[in-house]
């Protein structure tokens, strides 16, 4: 398996267009050496998409940054397990900011390698990073830079169940009463007064959840705005390049049109000269 891991590490560091030939060469070498099982596993290695390649390159370029992203994912999972609203709000906002920045870095690294990423591919990279955050298994593969395909799209951390008996953590400031105030006993409250604290608690939880959802919506909106601006900048850049190419094409067409016109003129002169020569030859032969 160590040989397979080494081959995979090499292959997934190559550009997508280089992958297939290198994989087939490794598989052929393994078959020639009599390692048929190894050759079969190498041949089954999947060529990465452009977005997956860019995500792998990002992990390989900065291992510390990749580890920090995984730590963020673990923090989000822990916050979901313990139903910590304050931590969820802070980490969710951090998640959107960090992923947008890392996707931009992936685009820069790809350009350094001679491969431009479109705005659509950059969004795919962001989706891969979100999936990596929510999927520890995919995270372990990505951090080594050997991700073969994009993980399934992540929908938050719905698969992270709260710990048994976990209740939403209260905010840092107490909602009712001064610190140190002794709560009323059940006997002092009485059955008829017990419903109001429960109702207040439910209302407080509902308000907390609404605030949490609002913070998450704000973070998503900020990410979408950053993505839209990135996409617009990319399109502006592509438009500028296309306009330059169009202008060069127009100049080249004008040059070729002038060359055709000049060639047509020379052709007409050559036709007239040939006709005159043939006429002179006929006249000379009839003498």
Polypeptide structure, described:
The chain is an all-alpha fold. The chain has a domain at about 1-45. It has helices at about 1-10, 15-30, 35-45, 50-60, 65-80, 85-110, 120-135, 135-145, 185-190, 195-285. Helix 2 runs antiparallel to helix 3 and helix 5 runs antiparallel to helix 6. The radius of gyration is 34 Å and the shape is elongated. The N and C termini lie far apart (about 95 Å). Residues about 155-190 have low confidence and may be disordered.
Straight-line N-to-C gap: 96 Å
* Oligomeric assembly: single chain
Main sheet specs: none
Average pLDDT level: 77
Which value, in Å, is the CA radius of gyration?
A: 34 Å
| Form type | elongated
Q: Assign a percent range to the helix content.
A: over 70%
Taken as a percent bin, the fraction of beta residues is under 5%
- Series of secondary-structure elements, N-terminal to C-terminal: HHHHHHHHHH
Structure classification: mainly alpha
Low-confidence stretches: 157-192
What is the number of E strands? 0
Q: What is the helix tally?
A: 10
């Amino acid at each position: 398996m160590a040989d397979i891991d080494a081959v995979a590490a090499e292959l997934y560091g190559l550009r997508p267009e280089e992958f297939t030939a290198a994989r087939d060469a490794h598989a052929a070498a393994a078959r020639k050496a009599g390692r048929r099982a190894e050759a079969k596993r190498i041949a089954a290695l999947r060529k990465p998409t452009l977005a997956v390649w860019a995500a792998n390159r990002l992990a390989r370029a900065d291992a510390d940054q990749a580890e920090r992203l995984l730590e963020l994912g673990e923090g989000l999972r822990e916050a979901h397990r313990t139903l910590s609203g304050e931590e969820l709000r802070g980490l969710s906002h951090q998640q959107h900011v960090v992923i947008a920045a890392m996707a931009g870095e992936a685009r820069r690294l790809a350009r350094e390698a001679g491969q431009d990423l479109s705005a659509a591919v950059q969004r795919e990279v962001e989706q891969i990073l979100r999936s990596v955050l929510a999927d520890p298994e995919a995270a372990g593969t990505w951090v080594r830079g050997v991700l073969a395909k994009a993980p399934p799209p992540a929908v938050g951390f719905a698969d992270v169940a709260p710990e048994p008996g976990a209740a939403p953590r209260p905010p840092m400031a107490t909602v009712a009463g001064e610190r140190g105030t002794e709560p009323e006993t059940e006997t002092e409250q009485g059955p008829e007064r017990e419903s109001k604290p429960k109702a207040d608690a439910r209302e407080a939880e509902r308000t907390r959840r609404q605030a949490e959802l609002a913070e998450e919506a704000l973070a998503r909106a900020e990410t979408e705005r950053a993505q839209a601006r990135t996409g617009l900048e990319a399109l502006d850049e592509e438009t500028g390049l296309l306009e330059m190419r169009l202008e060069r094409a127009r100049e080249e067409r004008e040059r070729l049109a002038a060359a055709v016109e000049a060639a047509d003129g020379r052709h007409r002169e050559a036709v007239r000269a040939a006709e005159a020569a043939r006429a002179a030859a006929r006249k000379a032969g009839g003498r």
